[in-house]
Amino acid sequence: MANVTLKNVYKRFGDVVAVRDQSLEIRDKEFLVLVGPSGCGKSTTLRMIAGLEEISEGIIEIGDEVVNDVAPKDRDIAMVFQNYALYPHMDVYDNMAFGLKLRKFPKKEIERRVQEAADILGIEQLLKRKPKELSGGQRQRVALGRAIVREPKVFLMDEPLSNLDAKLRVQMRTELSKLHDRLKTTMIYVTHDQTEAMTMGDRIVVLKDGLIQQVDDPLTLYNEPNNIFVAGFIGSPAMNFMDAVIKKEGDTYYIDGDGTFKIRVPEDKENLIKDYVDKDVVFGVRPEDIIDTSITHDFDVSEDNSFKAAVDVVEPMGSEIYLYLAEQGHSLIARVEAESTAEVGDKMNLAVDLRKIHVFDAETEDVIF
Amino acid sequence: MQITLKDIARMAGVAESTVSRALNDKKGVGEETKLKILKIAKEHNYRPNQLARGLAAKKTNMIAVFLSEMDSPSNIEIVKHLEAAAESEDYQIILCNTNNQEEKEKRYLSLLESNQVDGAIFIGGKLVGSHLLRASFSSDNSIVLVNRLAEENFFTSVLTDYSSGIYQAVKHLIKQGYQKIALVSGPKDNLVEEEKTTGYMEALEESELKLNHDLIYSTESSREAGYNAFLKIIESEVIPDAFISTKELTTIGLVEAIKMGGYFIPDDFAVVGYGDNILTSIIEPPLTVLSEPLAELAKKSFYFLLKLINDGLDSQKIEVLNPSLIIRDSSIKKYN
């Protein structure tokens, strides 16, 4: 069993608090991604689990053992960082084996482990090659192999793909996910890239300023963000945010954008919003949930779910079009179908899918719905 | 007693700040005054307090040299060359002997982490451990490894390709016409010794000669072990016609045993020894040896460190150097 547990963990560097009150349960065999902008404490968290940073307060457990005072080498973990060295004079076999050799593992055992790792990574045929005869992806696999041969309980990875070019990065993402399926080991993965997090993680931890913002599976994170930060961080292009006020007319509640838009609060959400009448809120809608009303056929466009905006920029992406819109100081992005005929300067009628809109408390930035 | 900036100012009859500007070659000092100040400083053998200067410039002009083993002659040789290289750049070295102990390494690492030195060079030692790994995460810590390996993170390194030396030796002996080449290597569970054996096997594989495992002999690194290795090998089924020894002391013992047995070098047995130094140089006949690139290791590593300290290296550097084969009489076949 290799679940990893953090209980009220803090890390302070002098007066700076890098990690605050983190409690987290990482399940056995889970692929957990820590994501957030630089300085959010994700690498520090990983290094504390690794034992490379002492924790200032709290408890970390690996398996059922408290590891606060256990040396890194005795924690049964293997680390993979973005920078790694393949030694140019050693062949692939030795580049994977030298650590075990220096730790004086028996020769037979080393052979077994390297063969097994090579098999898992699909690099058996490369064992006799030198690094300069390998492609970038193959090299990355050798670096992973070096961690795999240690047969750890937990893999810790800190931006292992960030030195690769974009194409290779996408390819290695899939490979790492497959690798996780095959190894069936707990993996904790740090990245600043939300796409990487969304595509790889069983669950994702979003961090900001050393604080956990939300822990959820990718879809929940995307559909039900806890606050403005998570909503804006997950998804690309990012969610549109517009200042608004909640208005009540008769029995109906509206999200009022001061003349720019007036969207009706769905009935099932009314009880969540009733305390916010005449209060400032932030209206959030993802670019993909804005609809070009001129090309939609099965969407019921009404005054309650639509608004007008001028097109500033049209960015055709092939399969879809990004429209940069502006209206009375609000600016937003819409991701519409490729058939859209929108042109710069057009005043368009746009609709939003009411099931997918979000409203946040303007003061606390927490989600209302 | 060391002369200070204050003393010079008094003697020259100027302000301390003027002395400082003159010594640091900065503007705002008349040529005449400057010459006068420099003259006094020279006469009194003025040396700036490196620590104080370091505090001002955030530089100490000192580097830490971590030594994993004090008794290794090669390591000491590298340190000597390092010191010379450092001195030529106005740097001083602080020697930190870790005896391969992580705790000692951790304590000495505080020199680097508290900026008491500008950088650190690590010579030899076990796989990079957690303290050094942690230190490497900060780009402020300039670190170069010499003959030391790291698993997780990248370190600027200068390494010796031990296999290539033995490879060259085997190729040379084959070219001379020797066919049964024995390898007397160090302890088996040592990575460096294993690399040397790899070089031996690779060279044989490339030639027509068959690999005979009986000709690979692994032993301690001592004079006695070298002596006994010869006695053991000539009792085996295949008698070699040449020996390669991978350790300095073993080489001495091996040569002694050959001579004691009444054999001649290279007539009965050719010998390629290890280490071009005082020990191997007094052997008769002059010994063909493999020489590790110690001076080059020192120079390269210091150069990399200096770059890291000053403006950083523009790319990741791992330089691998090859030992050189110095051919003398002990491996030259006189008659064919």
UniProtKB/TrEMBL annotation, chain A:
CDD domains: ABC_MalK_N. InterPro entries: AAA+_ATPase (IPR003593), ABC_transporter-like_ATP-bd (IPR003439), ABC_transporter-like_CS (IPR017871), ABC_transpr_MalK-like (IPR015855), ABC_transpr_MalK/UgpC-like (IPR047641), Mo/tungstate-bd_C_term_dom (IPR008995), NA-bd_OB-fold (IPR012340), OB_MalK-like (IPR040582). GO terms for biological process: carbohydrate transport. GO terms for molecular function: ABC-type transporter activity; ATP binding; ATP hydrolysis activity. Residues 4-234 form the ABC transporter domain. SMART domains: AAA. Gene3D superfamilies: 2.40.50.100, Nucleic acid-binding proteins, P-loop containing nucleotide triphosphate hydrolases. PROSITE patterns: ABC_TRANSPORTER_1, ABC_TRANSPORTER_2. It holds the Pfam family TOBE. It comes from the Bacteria. One of its GO terms (cellular component) is ATP-binding cassette (ABC) transporter complex, substrate-binding subunit-containing. Keywords: ATP-binding, Nucleotide-binding, Transport. PANTHER family: MALTODEXTRIN IMPORT ATP-BINDING PROTEIN MSMX (PTHR43875), OSMOPROTECTIVE COMPOUNDS UPTAKE ATP-BINDING PROTEIN GGTA (PTHR43875:SF1). This is Sn-glycerol-3-phosphate ABC transporter ATP-binding protein UgpC. It comes from Halanaerobium polyolivorans.
Automatic annotation (TrEMBL), chain B:
One of its GO terms (molecular function) is transcription cis-regulatory region binding. Coiled coil: none annotated. Signal peptide: none annotated. Residues 3-57 form the HTH lacI-type domain. Keywords: DNA-binding, Transcription, Transcription regulation. It holds the Pfam family Peripla_BP_1. This is LacI family transcriptional regulator. It comes from Halanaerobium polyolivorans.
